[in-house]
Amino acid sequence: FPRLKGKTVLITGASAGFGWHTALAFAENGSNLILLARRLERLEELKTKINASYPSVDVKIYKVDVSSHDDIKQAFKIILEESHRIDVVVNNAGLGQGADPVSTLGAEDMQVMFDTNVKGLVWVTQQVLPSMLERNEGHVINVGSIAGLQITTMGCFYGATKHAVHALTEALRIETVATNIRVSEICPGLAETEFALVRSRGDRDLEKKMLDGLTPLTAQDVAELIVFTASTHPRCVISQSVIVPSCQANTFIMHRKT
Ligand code: NDP
Ligand code: 8X3
């Protein structure tokens, strides 16, 4: 996509899954990258890979925990000094932690999911938005979930945080409608990344059971959609996209091959 060449794209949660592959897909299109995650060694590995394949792409990496407002404020003092212009922000960092019902939801799980998936997304947006408003251009792409449109039985609080992402994405679109800033929400269904392992608290048997008989999306599938969303002419915005594997009808109905 020639429109993406030379653009600067900030991606949160770039050390794995969708974020990692989205970074590679933007690099392939000649975009410069600002990559954030807690695991700096993974970001270093990705930077080395991108530098080897796309030497003209500038890659900056930062260790940031998006669930911490202090961490974000400190990191962005440096990020905004080192990169004066951010064209696209992909708010992708997020997680499910456990899948308990409302009756037994744990306080710590709720806090981690809410702080990461909801507050972190808002805090990162708040850092990038002022200069977008000043330039009257920019694109905010939020990674929600199909669980943000229809509640899932595989984690009600996770689904609640993604409903919040949906609401906040709509709110930002309303807030910026008089500007050239574009706001998009990407809602993936079941995908094979580190997500299932994190949600099952590292339980590989449970992870395997969740995916058994299903052919999930790959991280590349979702990355392609994100990059396409960023590539359209500035006069249009793909405001919301739902991408699911063909074995998934909605959050409840999945066809398992036995
Ligand atoms: P992965 O677990 O593979 O990747 C999650 C990424 O988020 C990692 O890079 C991780 O980096 C980062 N992250 C998590 N917590 C934080 C934090 N506190 N601060 C900074 N970065 C953090 O999962 P996916 O790629 O699947 O998930 C990406 C997004 O897609 C999430 O928002 C998820 O909710 C959403 N999603 C996933 C679906 C799926 O089935 N896989 C379906 C629909 C939506 P690190 O640990 O290094 O900090
Ligand atoms: C997670 C989507 O379908 O695995 O965001 O609950 S699903």
TrEMBL record:
Superkingdom of the source species: Eukaryota
Gene Ontology MF term list: oxidoreductase activity, acting on the CH-OH group of donors, NAD or NADP as acceptor
Pfam families listed in its UniProt record: adh_short (PF00106)
Endpoints of the signal sequence: none
Keywords: NADP, Oxidoreductase
Database matches in PANTHER family: ALCOHOL DEHYDROGENASE
Family assignment from sequence similarity: Belongs to the short-chain dehydrogenases/reductases (SDR) family.
Protein name from the UniProt record: NAD(P)-binding protein
Protein's organism: Smittium megazygosporum
Lineage, highest ranks first: Eukaryota, Fungi, Fungi incertae sedis, Zoopagomycota, Kickxellomycotina
